[in-house]
């Protein structure tokens, strides 16, 4: 991906600088519940493709909590609404989406199960996300 110089206002620059990319609220909440249920994990595990937010190493499950903007939630509709630096953001986010697919394939080839949740999904439907993880663990352990 070639990098373009970003034309932005000081206000936008300050707002973007305040965005946390690691250890967000949704990620921490999910990790704590898994820990209390007895599952041990690594956070932002750099030894795996994509540095999963939560890596259950014993079960070989890589969990990603994806931010809607950065990973292209509802991308077909969202990209039409981009106004500032449109070409830059479309290229950036589409590359992120391609990288996610590549990392999932690498993980699967290594014997890992990748699971992705949207950040707002974890916040709004926490029990469903946890249930998906627990059922994946159960299916892996029963093999």
Order of helices and strands: HHEEEHHHEHH
> What would the CATH topology be?
Endonuclease, Chain A
Mean pLDDT: 87
Number of helices: 7
CATH architecture: 3-Layer(aba) Sandwich
Distance between the termini: 41 Å
Overall morphology: globular
Class derived from helix and strand content: alpha+beta
Number of strands: 4
**How much is the radius of gyration in Å?**
17 Å
**Can you give the helix content as a percent range?**
40-55%
Enumerate the strands of the largest sheet in spatial order, edge to edge or round the barrel. 1-2-3-4
- How much strand content do the residues show? 5-15%
Sheet with most strands: 4 strands, mixed
CATH class designation: Alpha Beta
Which regions have little confidence, pLDDT < 50, spanning 5+ residues?
Answer: none
- The tally of structural domains comes to 1
Relevant CATH superfamily = VSR Endonuclease
